[in-house]
Write a structure and sequence with these properties.
By secondary structure, the protein is α+β, with helices and mostly antiparallel strands. It contains 17 helices and 12 strands. A hairpin with a 3-residue loop joins strand 8 and strand 9. It binds adenosine-5'-diphosphate and magnesium ion.
Length: 449
C-alpha cells in the first residue's frame, strides 16, 4: 500500500492498530462513495511523536511496537516523569540495550510517548529491565515515591498481628466506613511481564497461578474464571461490584505498552466463594491479589491479604519458581508506581461534610479533602476508582506511598490517617469552618498542635 492508496475495510480491518486508529467508526467517517479510505487521511497516533514500525518479535496480529532510533519528539502535552527523565543523554546511553528476553528501551517508553497524559509513562517487560534501564527508572522512582533506589533498601512486613487498631478506631470505622479493600501486585519470576510476554509465557503464568488457586483451602478456596469464557451478565456483575479489572481502552497504559495484546486470552479472575479474596490474572501484572469485605474491619482484611500473599509465594516455590522481588525495589512489576509493597489499602468512607464543600464554589474549600489527605500521606479517589465522582459522598481513601515502607507500616498509616480525616469530618459536622480545619493542619505540620 503506497501513500495515497485507497483501501477497503476488508483490506485493513485485520491489521494491528485498526481499532486504535478509530476502527469501523473512523472508517465510516473517512470513506468515499466507493466505500474506500485514502490512507493519506489516516494519521497514525502511534507515530505522531516519532518512531517507526521496524518489526518487533513480540508484534501480534492486533499490535505493533514502535521503535525509536532518535529521541521521541515530546510536547508540552507529555506530562509523564518518563518524558522529563528521558534526556538525549539517557536516551543515547540506553537506546541499544536489550534484556535477554528482548525488551528494549523503545518498548519501555512507548506507552508514555503514545499516551501523553500518563503520569509515569513507562513499563518494564521483565525483571532484568529494572537493572538494565535503571538510569531511566531510578529517577522516575525518586520522583514518584521520593525513594532513592541507589542507596535505600525496602522493608517487608506481612505480620498482621503488628497492626494497632484501637476499640475507639474500630467503633469509628464501623460507623463511617462502608467497605475495605487491600490489593497488591505479584509477579512470577522467570516469565516476562505482560508488556513483554509471548503468548506461551502468558499461558505459562496462567498455568502457575491456576495451580496456586487450586491449592487454596479454607476461607480462600474458590474458582478461576477465564475472561474469554465469562458471559456478558457475569462480566457486568463483577464490574459493578468493583471485582473485575477495567477492559483496556486506547487511552490507558496497558494498550500503549503492548500489554493488551491478544486480549482476552489467558486473562482471568479468581475469587473465593465469599468474594472476599480475589486475584486478577495477566492484566497489568501477572497477578493482582485483592482482599476486600464490607465494613471497616481493617485487621480482618489485612490478615486475609497476608494469607493470600503467603499462599501465592508458597505455591510459586512449590512450582520451582519464585515471586519477583529484590531488596532494593521490593516486589517487582510492570509499572514503577507499583513497586515495593505494591500495596494500596483503601476504605470506602462516607464524608458528607467534605463532599458538600466539594460541591460548593469556593476553590480552596473544594480542595480541602485533597489537602487533608495529602497531609496524612493519603490519596482520595471517587467511588468507582481513579478519577471518578464520589457518589453518595462515598470516597475511596488509601495510602499514597508504596515503596520504602513495609506493608504493616502502610496499612497503619492508612488507619491512623483515616481516623484523623473522620475526626475532621466530625468537626465540620459540629460547625467548624474550613479555615479552622486548615489552621489545624498547619499547626500539626509545625508541631504546635
Ligand atoms: P486499583 O488501582 O487499586 O485497582 P482503582 O481505583 O482502579 O484501584 O479501583 C478498582 C476498583 O476497586 C473500583 O471499582 C473501585 O471502586 C473499587 N474499590 C476501591 N477501593 C474500594 C473499597 N475500599 N471498597 C470497595 N470497592 C473499592
Ligand atoms: Mg488501577
Amino acid at each position: 500500500m503506497g501513500t495515497g492508496a485507497s483501501v477497503s475495510r476488508e483490506e485493513v480491518n485485520h491489521l494491528p492498530q485498526y481499532t486504535i486508529l478509530g476502527g469501523d467508526a473512523k472508517f465510516d467517517e473517512l470513506k468515499n462513495e466507493e466505500g474506500k479510505v485514502s490512507l493519506e487521511k489516516v494519521e497514525d497516533p502511534y507515530l505522531k511523536f516519532g518512531g517507526t514500525y521496524a518489526g518487533d518479535i513480540k508484534d501480534t496480529s492486533d499490535f505493533k511496537y514502535v521503535s525509536y532510533s532518535t529521541l521521541p519528539a515530546f510536547t508540552d502535552k507529555h506530562k509523564s516523569l518518563m518524558a522529563k527523565v528521558l534526556t538525549q543523554e539517557v536516551f543515547d546511553k540506553l537506546k541499544d540495550l536489550k534484556s535477554s528476553k528482548g525488551y528494549t528501551l523503545s518498548n519501555a517508553i512507548m506507552t508514555g510517548v503514545v499516551t501523553p497524559h500518563l503520569g509515569v509513562g513507562c513499563t518494564a517487560g521483565d525483571e532484568e529491565c529494572w537493572d538494565i534501564f535503571k538510569d531511566l527508572y531510578y529517577p522516575i522512582i525518586k520522583g514518584w515515591h521520593g525513594y532513592d533506589a541507589y542507596t535505600q533498601k525496602h522493608p517487608v512486613d506481612l505480620d498482621p498481628s503488628k497492626l494497632r487498631f484501637t476499640d475507639e478506631q474500630r467503633e469509628t470505622f464501623n460507623k463511617y466506613v462502608v467497605s475495605t479493600r487491600i490489593r497488591a501486585a505479584r509477579n512470577i519470576s522467570g516469565f516476562a511481564l505482560p508488556a513483554g510476554a509471548t503468548a506461551e509465557e502468558r499461558s505459562g503464568v496462567e498455568a502457575v497461578l491456576k495451580q496456586a488457586f487450586s491449592g487454596l483451602g479454607g476461607e480462600l478456596a474458590g474458582t478461576y474464571y477465564e475472561l474469554g469464557g465469562l458471559t456478558e451478565e457475569q462480566t457486568k456483575f463483577l464490574l459493578e461490584r468493583g471485582f473485575l479489572f477495567q477492559i483496556p481502552t486506547s487511552r490507558n497504559l496497558l494498550t500503549g505498552a503492548g500489554a493488551a495484546r491478544s486480549w482476552p486470552n489467558n486473562r482471568g479472575i479468581f475469587h473465593n466463594d465469599a468474594q472476599t479474596a480475589l486475584c486478577w490474572v495477566n492484566e497489568e501484572d501477572h497477578c493482582r491479589i485483592i482482599s476486600m469485605e464490607l465494613g471497616g474491619d481493617i485487621p480482618s482484611v489485612f490478615t486475609r491479604f497476608c494469607a493470600l500473599s503467603n499462599a501465592l509465594k508458597a505455591s510459586a516455590e512449590a512450582n520451582n519458581t519464585k515471586l519477583m522481588w529484590n531488596e532494593t525495589l521490593g516486589f517487582l512489576g510492570t509499572c514503577p508506581s507499583n513497586l515495593g509493597t505494591g500495596l494500596r489499602a483503601s476504605v470506602m468512607v462516607c464524608l458528607p461534610q467534605f463532599n458538600k464543600l466539594m460541591e460548593g464554589d469556593n476553590h480552596e474549600d473544594k480542595e480541602l479533602l485533597e489537602h487533608v489527605c495529602s497531609a496524612y500521606d493519603l490519596q482520595p479517589r471517587g467511588s468507582a476508582g481513579e478519577h471518578s465522582a464520589a457518589v453518595g459522598a462515598k470516597f475511596d481513601v488509601s495510602n499514597k506511598q508504596r515503596l520504602g515502607f513495609s506493608e504493616v507500616e502502610l496499612v497503619q498509616k492508612m488507619i491512623d490517617g483515616v481516623s484523623k480525616v473522620i475526626k475532621l469530618e466530625k468537626m465540620l459536622e459540629a460547625g467548624a469552618t474550613p479555615a479552622e480545619i486548615r489552621a489545624i493542619l498547619e499547626a500539626e505540620k509545625n508541631g504546635t498542635a
